[in-house]
# Entry
Amino acid sequence: MIFLRSLLFFLWFAAMSVAINIGALPALLLPRRATLWAARRWSKATFWGLRVFAGLDYEVRGQIPGQGVLVAAKHMSMWDTLALFLLLDDPAIVIKRELLFIPFYGWYVRKAGSIAIDRAAGAGALRAMAAKAREAIGAGRSVAIFPEGTRKKPGAVPDYKPGVAGLYGQLGVECVPVALNSGLFWTGFVKKPGRIVIEFLPAIAAGLKRGEFMRLLEEGTEKATAALVAEGRAQLEKRHSA
# Structure
């Protein structure tokens, strides 16, 4: 049953993505807000399909931050990027530069004002990322980053990169950590029915020393994530035994 429901979602997602990506092409020639509108329709349609076809919904905990802050989120699946885009108000999301070369998707994320980073460029990439992040903060937007730089399976050993600390120091704004358990439910092609939880944790004040900031970010995020993963596993076991 899970495979069939995942297949139905995949067919919906593919058809919907083709329709919106092609239909919204004129938005690329219009002001950025037009692209944001189209991207939000696509993200909302994806979540609708997850709920209707795959039986996968989500819950938001904590206080969703306003504009002008740094948001540092755990990363387990594609779901995370969509959720941050919808829940935050016009965030500048830090993404891998390679994503810009994906037809249609790359065009839209570039126009939407994402911050692409070339991880192979070393210190130069970090300086470029910081400059674009300052522009976003100056324009009243928040900046969202995945501190580990890549997706991690639930329970995997954390690997927080120094880039988030550099960004925190350069921006001079508070940082809101985000914990989640999406990797238990969005596992590649298979989408397991249930409820993903995303939790916005208390903000870390601006101006802390690098080591203290990294300690608070990692310890807080990992503790909250572990609790959400345990809750999600219990949810899945309950469904399996029912």
The chain has one domain: 56-241. The chain has a mean pLDDT of 94. The helical segments are 2-23, 32-54, 78-87, 105-111, 123-138, 163-171, 210-241.
